[in-house]
Fold this protein.
Amino acid sequence: AKTIVQAVKVETAPVETQRMPKYLTLTGSILADRTSEIAANVNGHVTKTYVERGQPVKTGQVIAVVDSKAAGFQVAAAVAQSRAAESQVALAGQDCARADMLFKEGALAKAEYDRQKTQCSAQLYNANAAQAQADLAGKLAGDTQIRAPFDGVIGERYVNLGEYVQPSSRVASLFSVNPVRVSISVPESAVGLVKEGQTIEVQVSSYPGERFPAVVRLLGPALRAQTRDLIVEAFAKNDQKKLMPGMFATVLLLIGEEDQPTVPANAIKADGTVRRLFLAKEGSAFEMVVRTGVEKDGRIAVLEPLSADDMVILQPPPGLHDGSAIQ
C-alpha cells in the first residue's frame, strides 16, 4: 500500500527589499559609574554594622560604627592641651608687651629683647599646633560613624562585629550603578565614526533581544599602542538594574542605511543561537539556516542572498522540515 503524505497547510509572504539601518558591531564592558572601597579612617572595634551585599544606600547613610571611647579620651586630652596652650599665649602676650615697653625705654638689652620675642612666638606656634591636634582628634571621634560617600549599592561588607579596624581598613565596597558606564573598544578603522553625544545601542547576553540606549560621553585622547584601538565610554540609564558591572556588552553603532532583503519576524524560527526560515518552492518547504540583521517595523533583515520572487512560510508549524509537502 502506498503511504499518502498529507500536505501541511501554511501561510506565505514574499521577501521584500527595504532600507534598513546599518550598524557597526563593537565590543565592550559594563562598568559602575563610580566605585569606592570605603575605609574606616579611625582606630577601634566595630560595634555595629548596618549594611549587607546588594543593599541600596544614600549619601551620608551610616554603614558601620566603631567604638568611640578611645577617640573621646583623645579629644578630651587634646582640648585640655589646647586650653593650656591658650593660657600660655595670654601670658606670653603680656611678657612680650612688657619687653616692648622696656626695650623702647632703653631698659632692656637688644639680645634679651630678641630672646623674649622669640619665646613669645614659639608659645604662639605651640598653641596653634595644640588647637590643630584638638581639631584632628574631634574629626577622628566624628569618624567613628562610617558613612556612605555617595548613593549606590553595597557590593561587599568586609568587617564584622567586634573586629578591630585601622584608618586604612576596608569596611565595604560601594557601587553607583544608575547610570552605568559602557567601556567600548573602537578599532582604528572606525575611530572617525564615533562622536561625543552620539547614541548607541547596547546588548547583553542576559537579556537577548533587548537593547539599551547609551550616549557617548568620554573619548580617549590616544589609541592603545598594543591593540591599536580607542577606549570610549558611554553612559546608559539603568533604572531596572538589568545592566550589571562586569557584563560583556555588544555595542551597535548606527553608521547609515542600506537596502537589504527582509522577511516578517514570525518567519524566523530560533533554535538557541541558530536562526532558520522555510522557503515555499513548488509545493515543498525548503529549509535555510540564515544570519539575521536588524529588526524594524516587524520585519527582520536576512543577511543571505534572497530575491523578491522568494516566498517564506510564516509561523512554521511544528514538525515542518526540509522537503515537507505544503499547500
About this structure: The longest helix spans residues 69-104. The chain is about 20% helix and 45% strand. The CA atoms of residues 19 and 258 lie 5 Å apart.
